[in-house]
Amino acid sequence: MPQRTRRLFRIFGIDIEFDASWFIILFLIALSLAGEFQRIPGWSLATIWAATLITTALFFACLVLHELAHSLVARAYGIEVHAIRLYVFGGVSQITSEPKSPSAELLIALVGPLTSLVLGALFYLLAGQVQRSAPLGAMSWWLGMINILLGVFNLIPGFPLDGGRVLRALLWTANRNFLRATQWATQVGKVIAFLFILVGIVQVFHGGEWNGLWLAFIGWFLLTAADQSLKQTELRDALSQYLVRDLASPFFSRVSPDETLQHYFTQQAEQHDYQPSLVMAEDELLGLISPSDLKSIPRETWERTPVSEVMAPRDQVVTVSPRDGLGDVLDKMVTQNLPLLPVMEKSRVQGVIGRDRILQLVQSHFSSQRLPH
Ligand SMILES: [Zn+2]
């Protein structure tokens, strides 16, 4: 849910965001680490907590590095990366579109686990240089173990894990059909997810091991994720038959930059279902204004504040061309939470495309598919 995430910081132009659920894992990791460090003889309470905090922070940095590796390689292949989101199971790169070729998919997927494995090896190397019971030794030992675990876990060929993406890239190379490859990789992913759940349940009921609960939980998570990713790919496939110009509307709400916010709100926003309005002087697009931009402006100043002071200026407005595919456009709208985009050709506004219109098309497409012909 985009509303629940918060931005931590920005690196290489990519926002690092976190989800509330991420604190659960951070807390659990810190707790289990503290428990482990407690058992080392000769450590004071202060040492235990300092080592716990530093190790947790470094673990977080390793997660971000894993995701950054995916993101930077994706960007090298011309795929926009909006943000990296940290949540209960680690990180996800908010990559705005699917890779265009199997080799791109393969490299983007592989580089993450490789980063974790290399980090793991480096920490093990460091751990080998110092005494295991010394703080530096214990910390790097644990970080080595967790990074290797992270790398290996992500290489499990269950889509949408990195390993599943590697599998999809290989299937895609073999049969040249992206949708088919995704369907197969998803099936393998589901089998693996069921195995996780099964082994987890057996561990709990036969071995009395509560760790099995974690395994079952991971399996359940993988199962949902596999289903969701497949649905997304099917949706993209359905949308790829359409271009922006098939669905764009030549009618849109426009305001001039020197209109007041009050006038904009009562004359445009309220009349147009609170959709964003294009700010234009003559035929030139100057920016975009949405009712939500007014939230932070005190109402009593609306009468004297011009639209130009509050709008998103032209260089921040995402626009599309009539020939762009609808799949990519919907991805952009969803990942960046944009309800409406101006359609431009040769720097002239041709119309707008709304997220609602695309979603309506999706609905009618999928409901007509289910009807018997
Ligand atoms: Zn990864």
Please sum up the structure shown.
This protein has 373 residues and is of the alpha+beta class. The protein has 3 domains: 2-155, no CATH class; 176-239; 244-364, CBS-domain, CATH 3.10.580. Helix content is 57%, strand content 14%.
Strand content: 5-15%
Low-confidence stretches: none
**Count of separate structural domains:** 3
Major β-sheet annotation: 4 strands, mixed
The helix count comes to 11
Based on CA atoms alone, the radius of gyration comes out at 25 Å
Shape: globular
- Average pLDDT number: 84
Ligands in the model, by name, code or SMILES, are: zinc ion
Question: How is the largest sheet built, in terms of strand order?
Answer: 1-2-3-4
Tell me the structural class.
alpha+beta
Calculate the terminal CA-CA distance, rounded to whole Å.
37 Å
Order of helices and strands: EEHHEEHHHHHHEHEEEHEEH
Q: How many beta strands in the DSSP annotation?
A: 10
Helix share bin: 55-70%
